[in-house]
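Handoff note, outgoing to incoming analyst
You'll be picking up this chain. Sequence as last confirmed:
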Amino acid sequence: MRTLFGEYAIDDKRERLDFERVFGWLSETYWHTNTTLELVKRAAQHSSLVVGAYRREEQVGYLRVISDCTRFAYLCDVFVEESHRGKGLGKSLVRFAIDHPEHQVNRWLLVTRDAHPVYAEEGFVPLPNPEGWMCKTGK
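Most recent structure output, in case you need it:
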């Protein structure tokens, strides 16, 4: 699938992704500390959807989704290169994933430390019953 957003193209072609660039971005974020290029590649390989945003041939954004493609999808690793932020590209990446024909699920989840207003504009709300959720950290 492919869509245009202003001067950007957004698509789900895995072979087009520049994982060295993605690794560089994600390794500097608070949610990917102690990562490696191989882990970034493996995470993408086992995700149901990976999306790139491109200005001409240069990749400037990334997003991935973990999902069963039926009921549940977890939106993660949403990243737009700093010089391309503030133009709505991140929101367009999120819309691309939510509108993707293979991901018409009834529950989308995500975790963010500081972008709640951005995701609220796309319909995300706090969990209605967070006390029911549990987690286990590994390694």
